[in-house]
Amino acid sequence: MTEQDSTAGLPGELPGYLPVYSGKVRELFAPISPDTGLVDQSRLLLVASDRISAFDHVIDTPIPDKGAVLTQLSLWWFDQLADLVPHHVIDTTVPDRVAGRAVMVRRLRMLPVECIARAYLTGGGLSEYLATGHVSGVPLPEGLEDGSRLPEPVFTPTTKAPPGQHDEPMTFEDVEDELGAALAARVRDLTLGILARGNEIASERGILIADTKVEYGVDPVSLGVPDDEDVDWATVDPDDLQIVLADEVLTPDSSRFWRASEWEPGRPQTSYDKQVLRDWLLSADSGWDRAGGQPPPALPDEVVALTRARYVEAYETLTGATFTVAAQQSSPAQQ
Predict the structure, then answer these.
(1) Is the predicted pLDDT of residue 194 greater than 60, yes or no?
(2) CA distance 300 to 1
(3) DSSP type of residue 62
(4) Count of CB atoms situated within 10 Å of the CB of 145
(5) Homologous superfamily of 109-260 in CATH?
(6) Which 8-state DSSP code applies to residue 241?
């Protein structure tokens, strides 16, 4: 397959923008004023690359058009969720170099918790349940298996581990210790509400959303804390702050999408997400030992093609629109 521009080499190569962060799959750039040469402290250009991660590793092989799918699907979902929670997108007018895969967003101070909600049992939640009967401290009924629908969706947060380390499950009490009771309850309820709205919409289109991860931030100015100082989140009153949905939402990278017509507990489900490459990595064909400490191998063409196809199918099934790469237009001043 022909490798698309994954923006892997973007830092330092996007005129008018200062590279500030390079993550597993995203790049952040701060706009520079052409008049003063000063960095804009209120906005960031968020660029989704074609890199893909699995099991806390970035895979060497990119998935063509993945960044564009994630960006455009998130924009669609932000509209569907607008009455539940505000989002961070300011503008979709971006430089031509990153058209279709980038948005201008508010600069936020991010909450230090990965907010996850589950409607079905699978993945890490299944492993924890089989070992303890609980998921993130939430007791579940006996007899559940891979793919079982939970009696009701549950909030199963994790830590935000530094690069190279694994996120660890948190109980709700852990989140209360980290964020304070009021803010913890607010993000729990928002996360469960996002998953519920997502499944309400997706189920009408033949997709089940098994679980999802979302991230929230707040306006750093409203915190009254300098950027280089830690925030004591337990002392923050969420009623005094606007909680903002950030990063991405209800995408094949942040969620597990299953084909509803083929859902059957007790076996792996037909998925629209990166489960395709997870399954290959764990198979004998990959030759990779997850516990061996070595990075995963490059993906074969057929796994790349199938993963891309599933991402595009998810976008088109949910939105009802045909996927095109350059869905956003830039202004002449930004070209």
Answers:
(1) yes
(2) 10
(3) -
(4) 13
(5) ATP-grasp fold, B domain (3.30.470.20)
(6) S
